[in-house]
Every structure is written in structure tokens, then in C-alpha cells.
Design brief:
The chain has two domains: about 10-35 and about 240-275; about 70-230, f41 fragment of flagellin, N-terminal domain (Up-down Bundle). The strands form two sheets. The chain has a two-stranded antiparallel sheet with strand order 1-2. A two-stranded antiparallel ribbon has the order 3-4. About 65% of the residues lie in helices and about 5% in strands. It is mainly α and about 280 residues long. It contains five helices and four strands; from the N terminus they run αααββββαα.
């Protein structure tokens, strides 16, 4: 038989314990609704939080990878645009050299052609020297065989786009920086060199185009990988708000009932006063 005592109210203690449990569960649900996460701190679930935190660091690292790939893509695209200009200038030089190879030209006509030739020739140097993005020039041989090395993953591995040398007198544009077409003989010599240079520049541009496509393809992959990891982290830590909303209503009702139960338990001792009347 339960002890009737004004010092110890067992019913009130049990009702209070149940109410405290309900309030604790209610606080958890409200926290999940406020943050949108079922695991927002390490104390919620240390193991899952640690896994999610590790994946968040991976996502952050992939942002740096994307930035590096985008810089490489921009540097390569600038190089391609400049290389196409060099190719166009070589075609113009070919036209001038072919015209100057005509032995029937007058001295004044040949001189005019030669001046045009030298002007166009010098434009190649100007184009190559200005083919920079963020200080990187893939056409003037300043990067050597290294080219541009963009980050490919979070461990620091790289993907490379090799640099090309389109400078006058270089590996691809073999036309000398001092070449002229002042005579028919010089014009014929320049014509052969220009034809070779046009083929070389076309090959160089093809290689740069392949490199740009490689960077673009890998950038798309990294973006998809980042989205997938973010989805995985969400699956680990995000709360089901529809479920939590329903649970919130249930716990609020349970809290109200707990308060009423505690009130009833507290009032039970006052009934003992009736025994002394």
C-alpha cells in the first residue's frame, strides 16, 4: 500500500520525472527544427558528426580545386585565342611573301610589301607577349615543359596543360624575328618557313584545345562530385522537418498532459487535511 505522506509525494516525483523527459525531448525537436539538422554538434552523435565534418573539409578542398581548374581553363583559353591570332597573322605573311616572290615586281612595290610584312611579323611578338592570364603565358615558352598545372583533387594531384612556344624563331614559329622579303629570294625562303610555321601552330593549337577540354571535363566531374558529397552529408545530418513537426505537436500535447498530471499529484496531499476535520 502506498504511503500517505506530506513529506514524500511519490506520485508528484514520478509525474515530474516524466515531464522532465518530455521537456528534454521537446528541446531536442525544437533544436532540430531551428537548425534543420538532426546532428548539429558532436554531442548529438560524435561518430556521425566526425564523418560529416570530414566530408565538409573535402567539399571545402574541392572549392580550391575548382578555382585552380578555372584559372587553368582561362589561361588556356587566352592562349588559344592568341594562338588563333598568330595563325591568322601567318596567313597574312604568307600572302605578302607569295606576292613578293614575283620577280616582275617594281622596287617600290616590293618595298611596300616588305614594310607590310615586317609590321605583321612584329604583331606576332606583340600578340604572344600579351597572351597572359593572371601572369601565366602559355605561348612565350616562359612556363617551359611545365605549362599550367591545375589541382585535380583534394590530395594535391595535378592535371597539366603543356605550354607552347609561338614566339618568332621558336619551336613552332620558325620565322626569324628579323625576317624580310626585300628580294624574291628572301620571299621564297620566308614562304617555305611560313608554311611550316602555319602547320606547327595548327598542331600547337590542337594540343591547347585538347588541354582546355580536359580541364573543362574534369571541372564538371569535380562539380558533380562536390554535389554528391554534399548530398551525402545532408543524408547524415539533416533533419526530416515533416517528421519533426509532427513529433513537436505530439510532445507539446504530452507536455500539457504532464503538467496536468503533476498538478493532480501535487493536489493529492491536500486531501489528507480532510482526515483531520
Amino acid at each position: 500500500m502506498a504511503l500517505n505522506s506530506v513529506n514524500t509525494n511519490v506520485g508528484a516525483m514520478i509525474a515530474l520525472q516524466n515531464l522532465q523527459v518530455t521537456n528534454s525531448e521537446l528541446g531536442v525537436v525544437q533544436g532540430r527544427i531551428n537548425t534543420g539538422k538532426k546532428i548539429s554538434t558532436a554531442k548529438d552523435n560524435g561518430a556521425i558528426w566526425a564523418i560529416a565534418q570530414g566530408q565538409r573539409s573535402e567539399i571545402g578542398a574541392l572549392n580550391a580545386v575548382k578555382d585552380s581548374l578555372q584559372r587553368g581553363q582561362s589561361a588556356t583559353d587566352v592562349a588559344i585565342a592568341a594562338g588563333e591570332s598568330v595563325s591568322d597573322l601567318l596567313i597574312q605573311l604568307k600572302e605578302k611573301a607569295l606576292s613578293a616572290s614575283d620577280t616582275s615586281l617594281t622596287t617600290s612595290a616590293r618595298k611596300a610589301l616588305n614594310e607590310d610584312f615586317k609590321s605583321i611579323r612584329d604583331q606576332i611578338t606583340t600578340v604572344v607577349n600579351n597572351a597572359k592570364f593572371n601572369g601565366v603565358n602559355l605561348l612565350d615558352n616562359s612556363t617551359g615543359t611545365n605549362g599550367f598545372k591545375a589541382l585535380s583533387n583534394a590530395t594535391g594531384s595535378t592535371i597539366k596543360v603543356a605550354g607552347e612556344n609561338l614566339s618568332l624563331g621558336g619551336a613552332n614559329v620558325t620565322l626569324a624575328a628579323t625576317a624580310t622579303i626585300g628580294t624574291a629570294t628572301l620571299a621564297n625562303t620566308a614562304l617555305g618557313v611560313i608554311n611550316t610555321s602555319i602547320d606547327n601552330v595548327s598542331s600547337a593549337l590542337a594540343r591547347l584545345g585538347t588541354g582546355s577540354n580536359s580541364l573543362s571535363t574534369h571541372l564538371k566531374f569535380v562539380s558533380k562530385l562536390q554535389d554528391t558529397i554534399e548530398t551525402g552529408v545532408g543524408n547524415l545530418v539533416d533533419a526530416d522537418l515533416a517528421k519533426e513537426s509532427a513529433r513537436l505537436q505530439a510532445l507539446q500535447t504530452k507536455q500539457q498532459l504532464g503538467v496536468q498530471a503533476l498538478s493532480i499529484a501535487n493536489s493529492s496531499t491536500s486531501m489528507l487535511l480532510g482526515l483531520f476535520r
